[in-house]
Design goal:
- The chain has about 160 residues and is mostly beta strands.
- The protein contains one helix and ten strands; from the N terminus they run αββββββββββ.
- The strands form three sheets. The chain has a four-stranded antiparallel β-sheet, with no helix packed on it.
- Strand 5 and strand 6 form a beta hairpin.
């Protein structure tokens, strides 16, 4: 019994030692197709402008996705009302057609580090808008897109 309790305590400690998640939201895209006029919206409040974060983006796709790369327009609205827009690109399969990411079968999930060790300069609400930026008006094969932020932990 003591060995079981010790083992359980060690497992709990190891699982809880990872970076602390500040925010995560993964949203589903229209299963038929992601229209270029359809946007995904994300928002969160920053209360500590001195905290550093690692910012990740998630893309889930299935084998219906017809291309190697995937591009999005990524708009950030800051608490002071200013906006910035980036065009972000992701590689979803290699040049031989092998899908990147994790998952078995038809669905693959990729997690991309967008920014590492960043701070949000202003306290308040940050809003993010994501639109697919491919040439297809109705893009098939992307099932989900998401954002997550973890408190940055310096390597020891």
């Amino acid at each position: 019994m003591k060995k079981l309790l010790l083992f359980s305590a060690i497992v709990i400690l190891l699982c809880s030692c990872g970076p602390k998640r500040f925010y995560e939201d993964i949203q589903s895209v229209n299963p038929k197709a992601w229209n270029m006029d359809s946007a995904l919206h994300f928002q969160f409040d920053v209360t500590d402008s001195m905290q550093y974060y690692d910012f990740y983006l998630y893309v889930r796709n299935n084998s219906d996705y017809p291309m190697q790369n995937f591009y999005v327009f990524f708009t950030t609205e800051f608490p002071n009302g200013q906006c910035a827009q980036d065009t972000l690109g992701f590689i979803l399969c290699d040049k031989y057609g092998k899908w990147t990411g994790k998952g078995q079968g038809d669905l693959k999930e990729n997690r991309f580090l967008f920014r590492s060790n960043i701070r949000f300069a202003h306290c308040g609400q940050y809003k993010f808008t994501v639109r697919q930026a491919m040439r297809d008006e109705n893009l098939v094969g992307i099932s989900d897109f998401g954002l997550s932020l973890f408190e940055h932990q310096a390597n020891n």
